[in-house]
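Q: Sequence in, structure out?
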Amino acid sequence: MSIRNYLLAICSVMLLAGCSSPKVQDYAHTEPKLDLFNYFAGETQAYGQFQDRSGAVKRRFTVDITGTIEGDVLTLDERFLYDDGEKEQRVWVIKRLANNQYSGTAGDVIGEAKGHSAGSVFNWRYTLDLPYKDSSIHVKFDDWMFLQADGVMLNRAQVTKWGFNVGEVTLFFSKAQP
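A: Exactly. Output:
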């Protein structure tokens, strides 16, 4: 094998390794175990921000979330308050499926969200109809939630358009104190 072909092979392997993403099953043995319905039942608060692709914080927000469960359906009523005073509401209807799988809908979600949990982790993927200037754009969310001790959950979502990074949403969830 020539040096050129050898270097090309190494670069190809490195490129493919850099493109691989974690899988939910990689976290199957992590603790504490996340039960999505149990976690979001009742009142939850969240604090978050959107960073553009350069990492600059563009918008900060808080979310008051009320979760209700009826059978295998979790309804999340999310009330957003942005740092510029804008308010927004999103209502998720999430269905528990077999094998730690979930599906969900919301008014501004295009089609159906698909989710999977294992151990302390939940991954949620969906397309959001995001208001932009005088119109809207469809962006894809690859949302990862990581349950920590004491009811704290961290959330990191990659936001893409046509496969290109648009930015990232970072959230911190905390359960309401009784």
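Residues 57 and 144 are 19 Å apart (CA to CA).
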